[in-house]
Amino acid sequence: MNGPTRTTCPYCGVGCGVLARVAGAEVHISGDPAHPANRGALCSKGAALGETLQPTGRLLRPRIGAREVGWDDALRKVATGFRRVIERHGANAVAFYVSGQLLTEDYYVANKLMKGFIGSANIDTNSRLCMSSAVAAHKRAFGEDLVGVTYEDLELADLVVLVGSNTAWCHPVLYQRIIRARERRPCMRVVVIDPRRTPTCDLADLHLPLRSGTDVVLFNGLLAWLSQQGLLNEEFLDAHTRGAARAVLVAENTAGSILAAAHACGVDASTLQLFYEWFGASERVISMFSQGVNQSSSGTDKANSIINVHLATGRIGRPGMGPFSVTGQPNAMGGREVGGLANMLAAHMELDNEEHRALVRQFWGVSELPERPGLKAIELFEAMYDGRVKAVWIMATNPIVSLPNAARAREALERCELVVVSDCVAATDTTAYAHVLLPAHAWGEKDGTVTNSDRHISRQRAFLAPAGEARADWWIICQVARRMGYTRGFEFEGPEQIFAEHAALSAYGNDGGRAFDLGGLAMLSAQDYADLEPVPWPVRKALGVDERPAGTDRLFTDRRFFHPDQRARLVATRPRAPRYTRDEEYPLILNTGRIRDQWHSMTRSGLAPRLGSHLPEPYIDMHAADALSFGLRQGTLVRATTRWGSLVARLRTSGEVARGSIFVPIHWSDQWASDARVGALVNPAADPISGEPEFKHTPARVEPFLVAWYGFALSRGQIPMDNVSWWVRVQGLHFTRYEMAGRNVPGSWEGWVRRFWLNSPDAAEWIEYEDRAAGIYRVALLRNERLEACVFISPRPDLPERGWLAGLFSAARITVQSRASLLSGRARDPAADTGATVCACFGVGRNAIKAAIADGCRDTRAVGERLKAGTNCGSCVPEIRRLIAETAAVTNDVARKDQVPDDGTAIA
Ligand code: SF4
User: Fold this and answer.
1) Nearest CA among 665, 671, 615, 611 for reference residue 425
2) Best of 29, 38, 451 for a ligand 1 pocket test (most atoms within 8 Å of beta carbon)
3) Exposed/middle/buried for 39, CB within 10 Å: 0-12, 13-18, 19+?
4) What's the average model confidence in pLDDT over 804-823?
5) Rounded mean pLDDT of the chain?
6) CA dihedral of 215, 218, 222, 228, whole degrees rounded to 10
7) FRET label pair with 173: which of 94, 278, 325, 547, CA 20 to 30 Å apart?
């Protein structure tokens, strides 16, 4: 086995360090103890990275249409295609749509090509969908897009406020850091502000389930209350800010009293008052916010209302305090740094600033730069739809799944003259619309840098040879640039040269007026770059000869901000209702988000069996009382419809969703389910400043999706889903699982099932059970005493759990006992069925945890000691705690019943 390669996780914005050890065909993944983000910890997704590195589904060679071609043909096709459109229709008729999955070096050359050489600002990124409201808010408040805190500040805070962030599932390693910090310092308090009662609330001393879209009222109310209580830091406000008086006045006028704010937000007034009091009394406060704040038609104002209360109290720039926007993607921050958004230039410079444009023009050696912002994501696809943009190059993202109003985005691609897609995966919902497909490196092959949510620049290092003819994104972009005639400016031979140029640009003409400065890294040798340790920017040039450039943990420590007058701004924020509101036809509000074990459109995480076992299907989560009033039953199929589209998924009543709302996860695409792309339902409203779409608030309705039968199949081979009304595909270990349902009952179930296995040799053993009258059919296929496949059909959704049957696919042969139980779907020995996965890291199921609880494990620590569940990433701890509480409730209930006297009178 080779020594480990130190690299970085490609999923969320925590940016955990990863050690990857290649051992033959296997890659062993562990957390990097030396990385400051995670100190050796990984979440379930990071820990399963080794399972996603398989060659299955990789795009191995360039394609033009369906034809595989050589690189030269493909690159020439892209270059001439773009050139032709530019000559005929101008530079603004072409666009790049890129991704927070790209490395900084890839992003840098893409931005340089579009803005510096093609001469358009039409380059935008899927990060627009995730955190552009935070970017806009930072720029308004601080004069530059700056996150001032470090992860360590979360541990130093006395009060951690989590706003619109299901940290337990979306940034699990940060969640674990907060948990451990509170174990060390029990005085630390945690407040969760979120319409849903997410697993993150497990940690909360206070949960404020505010009404969707009312964040500005809540924080304006806090600002007004702080002012009334005389808790503003007048000295700080006078010396270092502007706009406080107006911000406070607007806050007072719009939020009113605590009672009025509580009423508007739909929360209990005494709970809101308690939060305000805790905030007022805690000097060290961190307000960490994420997509629940950003993904809104008033996302920028929401973020500024949070920043305002920190500026108003001077709680910024010191240990354990400050506003903290955490990004969703691994390199959203890197994209911001190089200007990957249509309204930014490069190195945090501004398109509409003549001085900045002059600097970049000189540095790049170009005569012109666009003076106005290009098209932001939603506008960009709209421009493709109406023909203004005729050629697009999509890099490392799947907009047909992730954009709002996704059906229109699909049509926009269909209307485009030239669609180029670079990706590492061959079949995605988006690659289906590509005229040219370019195979890019996947994680494990990539070599470059990323920046995480607390400004640490880390290396992603390659530890695998590229699959097929895959190439680095930066190489592909530079090759196209050269073939477009830009022979100077794209001669890079490695990512270290691009990084050096990027770093040099950040320091160019920078007298300290721009915080983003990597001058200290501009002269790195190739070896220095290879060995680069995680470092938080700014990394300014060292002054002394022997001095090594060091990073900067915390910003604003000198109370200096980056507006020309070096003062921060409090921005007066007026609450605005979401663009579309519920009505009789659409009486519910659709909220969307991530789940614990999947990532984006599942092109990678969907390949890892252990990640598919926790929540294997898309679902529509709703309050049980709403389900009752709409005549819907948990576990049945339901259609959710909005003005923009619809999907079908099973109904869940988890208890997390407030009345009047539904929640649907974002991950499922047409590759994994028949009809579950939630992007198709999301409204296209966007924040007028940031352009970030409103993913958290779309009016919707739900209704039953009536079917005649439900079923599932587990099979070593693929099964065509061409004859069913609804299906979901899940990758298992040595099998594929299909959940399915149909409106038509086949004449013969046996005939229907046998066509899946037409090629099965006669020697296969066929075990079958059918109750025609009841509509029940079950079959198992064995070959050489090994389970090959099984199918279970019923008119009702309450089929056996799949866990025990799934485990049989890992057995070399079926035992006599298992064979006897096969068609019951349940192990004869209950202990053999560990149940649906709760802990993905150690594959521990619900039944096993319940058995341990019944056997005396009364807290999560005891469960962890017995089963290891919850002892790695800890993301499942809230679920284990819930199982313990449920068991306690059942036990108490039984105890109460045991005490009921014979005459039946209740115990008081
Ligand atoms: Fe990766 Fe998990 Fe760390 Fe995020 S928290 S970077 S998904 S290991």
Assistant:
1) 671
2) 38
3) middle
4) 93
5) 94
6) 140
7) 278
